[in-house]
């Protein structure tokens, strides 16, 4: 993996990176995957098995891991295995300090206000409202804030100018 550089062109892409390296479990999973290809079962020998799916989802959203199917032994089923994709980082963006402040807050905070906004946004998504601009106006926050929340929440992501639910299937 030498020489693979994660180039971040959008400040919102910092959210999964900061979450990964601010959480000891996510960081441990990343470190294990930076050494070799591992399946979820192999990761569970080092990490609580219930944490692994969410960790992998956040790492995938940050484009920090790649996956492939491991060739099974005769009579076994194939399993997905994962490996860290990058070992270097480069930022190639400019943003105002308010947006940077929002990104850091979303990435590193466990504030109850975030949970409330997330619940309200999920209700809006269930009602069919997916526009980032509409959601930001309704909640009195910037579009970057809404995009950052989508990057933080494992089952949501940004697609174009809207939010989408990700499949929970692995």
Structural commentary:
With 170 residues, the chain is α+β, with helices and mostly antiparallel strands. The chain has two domains: 5-91, Arc Repressor Mutant, subunit A, CATH 1.10.10.10; 97-165, no CATH class. The chain is built from eight helices and seven strands, in the order βααβααβββααααββ. The protein has helices at residues 14-22, 24-33, 40-43, 52-61, 97-108, 112-126, 132-139, 143-152; strands spanning 5-8, 38-39, 65-70, 79-84, 88-91, 156-159, 162-165. The strands form three sheets. A three-stranded antiparallel sheet has the order 2-4-3. It has a two-stranded parallel sheet with strand order 1-5. Strands 6-7 form a two-stranded antiparallel ribbon. β3 and β4 form a beta hairpin. α2 packs across α4 (52-61) and α7 packs across α8 (143-152). It is globular.
